Amino acid sequence: MDLDLVKQLEDFDDHRLVTFFHDSETDLNGFISIHRGNNDIPAFGATRIWNYRSYNEALVDSLRLSKTMSRKAALAGLKCGGAKAVIVAEGKIKNRREFLKAYSKKVNLLGGHFITGADVGISRDDVIMMRRFSRYFVGVNVDPVKYTGLGLFYSIQACLKEVYGKESLEGKSFAIQGVGKIGGELLRLIYNHSHNIYVSDVDKLTLKRIMMKYPNVKVVDSGKIFNQKVDAFCPCALSNCLNFKTIKLLNCSVIAGGANNQLESDGVADVLYKRSILYAPDYVVNSGGLISVYAEYENHGLNTQYVRKKVAGTKLMLKKILELSRRRKLSTLAISNELAGERIMRLK
Length: 348
Description:
Elements: H1 3-8, E1 17-23, E2 28-34, E3 43-44, E4 47-50, H2 55-75, E5 81-88, H3 96-108, E6 114-115, H4 124-130, H5 144-164, E7 173-177, H6 181-190, E8 196-200, H7 204-213, E9 218-219, E10 232-235, E11 254-255, H8 266-274, E12 278-279, H9 282-285, H10 288-297, H11 304-328, H12 332-344
Helix pairs in contact: 2-12, 5-6, 5-10, 5-11, 10-11, 11-12
């Protein structure tokens, strides 16, 4: 791919590193993008395996997600930059162990500038296995999903307080789009506290497990999850689920979910603001997982009290953003981007 074309991509933001990796024996292909970080401060970002429509789409995903990770780390108060690795899924992986082993060796080539863990398509067991071949994998001694869910729960409380005057989930209704790792954890946390919960997922086996474990949830088609009349819509699937078309369908007061890059563009946040729908910026509310693996990296991973205290800071940061949004009459995304940008500048 031509270097000038990469620089012209909308999501290229003077990234520190953009690299393509390949292994002929396992047919491993993908990109690692490091947005911010330096010789003293590593860049953190999980690895995902996805069936991209093209290599260009994969590259753009890594660029955009790495910038999001920088913002996430900045507002979580972590001394690290942001990065992202994407592996292009091209058919069935013949030997998963050898495939991931080859990838872990690619990570080693960056010498610790890139610290990674599990995202879509990568399990915690995969991470534990890859850690045997690379010490730059995190999420072994802590479960980041648990803390992502906890931070999201705290954030939902803050949103309900802003809109309804109370943090309580009692009598409130929710629509969760995607009940995999993060969505499933959020469901576990809110199930016994809320009134109605609607869920959707493209994976029928996942839905079957959810229905057996949580019999009172209401399953709806993926295309109809946006239409549900609820207090909070919780996108916990993949990126770009909120666009100018889907937000017209929303019938909620709050949006707070665990998916990364939920908005197709920043302009979507402005429309939500004008419609008086409170959007909780994704990289603020889903930072619990990053906080936990950073703590593991800094040897605090087994101190659950320390991690929980740091994750609780998510609610405080969100409250600050909501207050500034109200006072300055700007969208929550505009405020959070501004605050994150100020902190990221210090990493240059």
